[in-house]
Each structure stands twice: as structure tokens, then as C-alpha cells.
Amino acid sequence: MTPWLLAVVTALTVGIGPTAAATPDAAAPEATPVSTNGALHVCGVRLCNRFGQQVQLRGMSTHGIQWYANCVNAKSLDVLAKDWKADVLRVSMYVQEDGYASNPKKFTELVDDYIDLATERGLYVIVDWHILDPGDPKANLSRAKTFFTEIAKRHRTADNILYEIANEPSDVSWSRIRSYAEEVIPIIRAQDSDAVVLVGTRAWSSLGVSEDADEREVVNNPVRATNVMYTFHFYAASHGRIYLDTLTRAADKLPMFVTEFGTQTYTGDGGNDFTRSQQYLDLMASKRISWTNWNWSDDKRSGAVFKKGTCKAGTYADPAQLKPAGTWVRDRIRSGRIASSAPGELAPA
């Protein structure tokens, strides 16, 4: 334990609050991101911990859990938390494509299990309502209300959950996305009054750039709710300077969270552009923009961090099983946590 963390633990009681009666959330272990920083909240245009200090979460997103559930388990999350030293896991639950809509009970239970696994390891969890096709979030409004009511009710006293209510809206106006958010957020707030809610932006969460718009439509018409952040996604080999500049401007006016990015093209495949990726990471570090990388699986595409067969073999801890993108992002998650001992950043575990 670092001297800084020891001082915090000595001076302040560390740990999450009482657990929910229906499905208790285990108290986060000591000296983890959650035990150190507690419940998060939006402060101005930044994310802050329970002490009011700005924080930057760094971690990984799962692939679609209907396809790669075998990659998310106690063993793999031990590696993510202890070896990679991540702060956050994004659980990507597709709605269509054999996801939630095909079996709501099954996928609600699966997400619930992943929340418990992450909580036991002191990680924050992003519950990702992964809409992709159709891109109109209102097409699944009733399902979203049912799902988020259930998950928020089960984990209403947890300190480590963030709700991402629309992964990548597309071919739909910002006003419609905003209207959707203002219907879903009260559903979550009825169960969990103060959790951070992440709202997808237009054009595949590009702040509208991929449909020839920009951040001004959100700046001028923000969601009418508190403790809300806006998401931005990028794939470095496809999304160049105009996207980077848009995120730069937006982060000075809006609370931003990059819930998905890759070092490849927007397909999650192809060659890695590590130079452009580092430019994005430098920007996010300077503005304390939290991020999760796509994706924690052994999918055949270059954006999956593990080589094919890793999940079946359970060899997550072997660096030789990482693809180039996996090695790159692991190094940056680890170095970020190790260096984060200054006040205002996540303390190392």
C-alpha cells in the first residue's frame, strides 16, 4: 500500500455502504479502485470520487456476451484486476443479434453475475445496453425500461455501477436520443438515485461527427438530468484529426466518457494505428476522460486482446497469448494505474 493510500485509509473509513436485501453486493476488497474511491459522481465536466477528486477510469469492454461469455469469468477477471490493474469492466449486452431480446431472463441473470464477479474484485462496472442495429434507441424503449429497472433494483446500494443506456445510436437525431434518455433515466433513478448514467451520442457515439455534425448539438441541448455523462467512441485507424479535435472541444464543455475505442478500423479489425491511438490516450489523460478498450475476448479480429483459443484454455495471464493490440492496451492500463498516486487521480491498488 502506498503512503498516499495508507493516509487515506487511516483518515477515512473505506468501503461501500449497506448491501441490497434482494441480492447483496459484496463489499469491495481493500486497496482496489472501488474501495479507495467509492461512489463516483459528475463534478462539472469531470468524473470525481467520493472525496471530490477528479478520477480517470481505465479498463476493458467485453465483446458481446452472447458470443464470448466464456471469456468473462473469475479467472479472467482476476487477471484484469490484478495483473492488468484495470479500474473498470464494461459489460456489453447486445439487445438484438441473439442478445437480450432473445431471452431477457437469461441475459439479465448473466449481467447480474458479471456485476458480482467484478464487484468481488473491486472493479467499477459499466452496464452497457448495446444497441447497434436498429440505431434508434426508442425501438427498444420498453425493453430498456424493464432491464434497467431490474438491474438497478438488484444493485441499488452498490457504489461501483455506471449505466450506459444507449451504446451507439445512428440514423437518428440528437433530440430523439435526448428524449429517450429523459425517459430511461427516471426509471434508473427510481431504484438508484445517484448512479452515473452514460448517454450515447449521435452517429455511433461520435458526437455526430460521422453524420456531419459536432458536439454543439449536445452542448446546446443537454439531457435534463444530473449525474449524466456523454459517450464518445473512436477507432484510431478510421477516426482521425476531426474526431480527435471534436473530443478535445467537447471535453471542455461536457462530461465525456470514452466507453469504447480500438486501435484498428471501425470494424474492430485490420492494422493497428498506435500513433493515433496514443494521441487519443494523451488527450484523455490530460482531460481525465475515462475509457474502456474494445474488447476482452479471443475473437479472430485484431481488436480482441487475446489470441484465438485463449478463453477455452484459460491462459489469460500469459503475455504470449496477447495480440499486439492486447499488449499495447495492457501496458497503458498498467502504467496509468501505477503512475496514479497524485491527488486527483485514482490511487494505485
UniProtKB/TrEMBL annotation:
InterPro entries (UniProt xref): GH (IPR017853), Glyco_hydro_5 (IPR001547), Glyco_hydro_5_CS (IPR018087)
Family named by the database record: Belongs to the glycosyl hydrolase 5 (cellulase A) family.
Any GO BP: polysaccharide catabolic process
Signal sequence interval, chain numbering: 1-21
Keywords assigned: Glycosidase, Hydrolase, Signal
PROSITE patterns in the cross-refs: GLYCOSYL_HYDROL_F5
Catalytic activity from the UniProt record: Endohydrolysis of (1->4)-beta-D-glucosidic linkages in cellulose, lichenin and cereal beta-D-glucans
Name of the protein this chain belongs to: cellulase
Residue stretches making up the Glycoside hydrolase family domain: 48-299
GO molecular function, one term: cellulase activity
Entry's EC annotation: 3.2.1.4
Pfam families: Cellulase
Enzyme class: hydrolase
Annotated source species: Asanoa ferruginea
